[in-house]
Amino acid sequence: MTAPPPTIRSMLRRRPARAMLSGGTAYFVGNAMQAMAAAWLVVELTGSSFLAALVQTAVFLPMFLLALPAGVMADTTDRRRLMVGALGVQAALVALLALLMLAGWLSAGALLGLTFLIGCCTALMSPAWNSALVDTVPRDELPLAIAAVGIGYNGARALGPAAAGWVYAQWGPGWVFALALLGVGALLQSVRRHPPPPHPPSRLPAERLWGGMLSALRFARHSDIVLAQLIRTAAFGAAGSALWALLPAVAQQQLGLGATGFGFLMACMGSGAVLSGLSIARLRSRLGLERLVLLCCGIFAGVMAVAAGSSQRWLVYPALVAGGGAWM
Question: Is the pLDDT confidence value at 6 over 70?
């Protein structure tokens, strides 16, 4: 008899994989709550659409700047030490953010600066966490682990903003930041209890940071497939991120919503991404990858047009669900 194919449930029976995934999902929820509260707080403090958009810049710019060196560090250094250090600094920064907010001393500039530094910690930690998760499962279960990460991440994008919006409306942003700290602590605990194994020994000299970055760039430059996908991803991300960045302004100025309503808008996009993630394999087999990508680009463009021009909530909510699915 042939063995049954592995499933996500069977993969989660492995304790290290379960611990890393549960800690990572809690971390994703905390990050989503913090980003939602920061964006809405900037709108309330300044009323500026430009500064509200800068929150998304502060969240994602560190990933753009640090993803490559962080990937090299994950391959060449002690991953446990790297993750514990990055998460420890992030916990201190989130705690400082919560304390400044609860004391009434937090300005828009300090909020943007701390958000950027917290994003730097996430960028430094993420490649090491991804590779550590890969080491907890056998090779034939790797696609399942990737799918589980996608479901957890997008589920957090649905749950986190909705919960943050409610907490924000009830008790204020300081308590949202305080709850986000719990997510950092959950992942820190899982890394400490289930550290990744050390890299296998090699007779070759250790690769230096700058040399590793140049090797990665050289590979991308001379691989037509990789270079094409990088260009397409950059083009879509640069245009599509406008919707995420300006969603606080759309919520307040166009739809007349409060913090709870804004959290629900972000949750709509996260819910669409979860639904899309559950059906993406079937859609790929039916439409083909290229046709599916083109279709989703067109859908997302239409969603951006609706968000830019409509003041009808009943139209914007389902459009954002479709937008989250197309983004996924």
Answer: no
Q: What is the mean pLDDT of the chain?
A: 87
Q: What is the amino acid identity at position 9? A: R
Question: Residue 328's pLDDT is what?
Answer: 81
Task: Match 């998460």 to its residue by tokens.
Answer: 87
Find the DSSP H helices in 104-141. 108-134
Under 8 Å between Cβ of 131 and 79: yes
For residue 151, name the pLDDT band (cuts at 50, 70, 90): confident
Is this model's pTM higher than 0.90 or not? no
Number of H helices, E strands in the chain: 12, 0
Burial per residue of 228-238, b for 16 or more beta-carbon CB atoms within 10 angstroms, e otherwise? eeeeeeeeeee
Burial class of residue 221, CB neighbours in 10 A (0-12, 13-18, 19+): exposed
Query: What is 239-292 written as a DSSP string?
Result: HHHHHHHHHHHIIIIIS---HHHHHHHHHHHHHHHHHHHHHHHHHHHHH-HHHH
